[in-house]
Structures are given as C-alpha cells and as structure tokens.
Amino acid sequence: MKILAACGNDCSVCPRYTSLPYEKTGEELQHTAELWMKIGYRDHVVTNDEIACSGCRPENRCRYRVIKCCAEKGIKTCAACPAYPCETMRECFAVTRSFEPKCREVCSDAEYEILKRAFFEKEQNLLIEQAISYISELFRSNAGGHDTEHTLRVRRNAMMIAETESGCDREITELAALLHDADDHKLFHTENNRNARTFLEGRIDADRIERICACINSVSFSRNRGKIPETLEGRIVQDADRLDAMGAVGIARTFAYGGEHGRPLRESVQHFHDKLLLLKDEMNTETAKQLAAKRHAFLEAFLSELDEEMIDL
User: Fold this and answer.
1) Counting runs of H as helices and runs of E as strands, what totals does the chain give?
2) Phi-psi map region of 74: left, alpha, beta (phi>0 left; psi -120 to 50 alpha)
3) SS3 state of residue 201
4) What is the pLDDT of residues 235-267, one digit of tens each?
5) Which among 44, 60, 162, 189 is most buried, taking Cβ atoms within 10 Å?
6) C-alpha 16 chain-centroid distance
7) How many beta carbons lie within 10 A of that of residue 39, not counting itself?
8) What is the overall mean pLDDT for the chain?
C-alpha cells in the first residue's frame, strides 16, 4: 500500500523512509546517502541520521514548504488543495523530472525502479488521490454493492495483477479501475462515459482518456459476456472487477444489491448461477485465474451449505 507524502512521493518505497514497518539498516542508509551524492541530490555523502526520513512532519526540511502548506490548510496531500497544481508544485515536478536522466545513467535497473516509484510518479499519485475523492463523492449515497469500497477493491485487484503483467501501463490500469463504475448503466443515466470524462478531461492527454474509456467499456459482464478486451489493461481491469463478484465479498455484494432492490432470497441465489459461478472460466490473466479458483470454491461451498439449510422449503 502506498504511503503518500504531501507532495505525492510514495514513502512506502522510498529508500530513505524509516518509519515502522519500513525500518532501514545502517548499511542500507549508507548506500542511499552515497546514491544521493552520485545522483546529485546532495553534494557530499551525508550521515545516516541526515538521510533517514520518518515522513512528512511540519518541522521537517522541505524545499517547497509543501508540508507546512498542507498542515496550514488541514489537508494531507496537495491533491486535496483547490489551488492544485500551483506554481510551487509545478516547479517541484519540474525539478524532480530534471534528475531522472542522471538516475537512468548512474543507477542500476533496480535502483532506478525504486526511485521512479518513490519520486518520479508523484504527479500520477496525486492524480489517483483526486480520482479517489471524485468517486467517493460520486458513490456517496450508494450502498448496494457498487460503491466506493467495491471500486477500491477493484483497484487493489487490478494493481496486484498488473505487478505480474509486463508491459502494463499502470496509470491507465489504475484510473480505469477507479472509474470503471462511474457511468454504470445501473447507477447513472449518462452517455459516452460522461462522468469518467468529466474527471479526466484537463488532467491527462486525450488519447489516454480514450484508452481509459475503452478499458471501462470492456468491464461490464452483461455487455461483454464472452468478449476478451483488446488491450492488456482492459483484460486486467475486467478480471479485477469480476474477482470482486466472487468469494466472500461476492456473496456479500449479491445480497446487499438484492436487499437494496427488494429481491427475495431465492432470486438473489439465482444470480450465483446466472453469473458468479461462470466467472472462473472467463478470467484473462494467470494471476486472476489463480485467485478465481479459490473464490469459486468458496462460492460452491456456500451454496452447498445454503441448499442444506433451505431444504424442504
């Protein structure tokens, strides 16, 4: 799970971050201090105490005063600021990007990947924070299984699958997962992904918006039965959504939706046979297939117990 700094850095992968459970050994901190000088973040090798960081605190040194600014406004990250992106953050992003060529030059592949996720994706991280706020408001009054918690589980599933799929565009995948229900026909009367586009327009390029919308449009089970999405990102998000319709969560969501819409118990149970029990064989990625097998077995065990308890009724 990401731990975002006020500016959008991901502390959970930062080689300087030492708060529990991300403690670093003295050797690791020494290596980071040496790397910081090699990259040009520092003009000399600083001590382990100087390189270690326990997270955003008002008393911490911050070149752009981002920590203090967020504290004064009562927000955790710049994503919640109505003035974002301000000139200060634009400068912060530009300076961060200026170090990337040197990092590619002097770092190992593993070191560069860590720095990329820790620092060079801060804009994407803040965009994701904004997307979460947007869908939280969009689903604020929904409790029938297509809500914010469902969306966040789909996002978690998608990013877990993405870790095992080389060539995956993580930003496309994550935004498509977060916005996959933003225009669900069961919830909204919108056309052409209007809710999703309302959030995306002005934040990312037009071609990437179309890619995200294509992923979203390939998710719905009822509208895409038997169809395999053309893109890897679409296949991942489709799998991620279908996984959340299986297992214990899938059972809970089925009865939550049924209760919200006045369905009797047996009608909700029929939904298992119409959809949930079919999902295992429609997964696209190997990771999803493995996860689906366990969740499918749980569905079968539940139905067996339910049949026994409802016998003769």
Assistant:
1) 15, 0
2) left
3) strand
4) 999 999 999 999 999 999 999 888 888 999 989
5) 162
6) 23
7) 17
8) 93
Over 80: is that where the pLDDT of 21 sits? yes
Per-domain residue ranges for the chain? Answer: 11-120, 127-309
Level-2 CATH architecture, domain 127-309: Orthogonal Bundle (1.10)
pLDDT of residue 227: 87
Q: State the Cα torsion 28-33-36-41 to the nearest 10°.
A: 140
Residues contacting residue 5 through CB under 8 Å, at least 6 positions apart? 11, 55, 56, 67, 77
| CA 83 to chain CA centroid, nearest Å | 24
Q: What count of residues does the chain have? A: 313
Question: Which tokens hold the place of 88?
Answer: 């200060």
Amino acid 143: pLDDT: 66
- Distance CA(207)–CA(255), nearest Å, equals 39
The whole-angstrom separation of Cα 72 and Cα 58 is 9
In terms of Cβ atoms closer than 10 Å to its own Cβ (0-12, 13-18, 19+), residue 224 is middle
pLDDT in tens, 264-312: 998 999 999 999 999 999 999 999 999 999 999 999 999 999 999 987 6
**pLDDT at residue 313, rounded to an integer:** 61
Q: Is 214 exposed, middle or buried (0-12, 13-18, 19+ CB in 10 A)?
A: middle
Condensed to tens digits (0 to 9), the pLDDT of residues 175-193 reads 999 999 999 988 899 999 9
Amino acid 26 reads: G
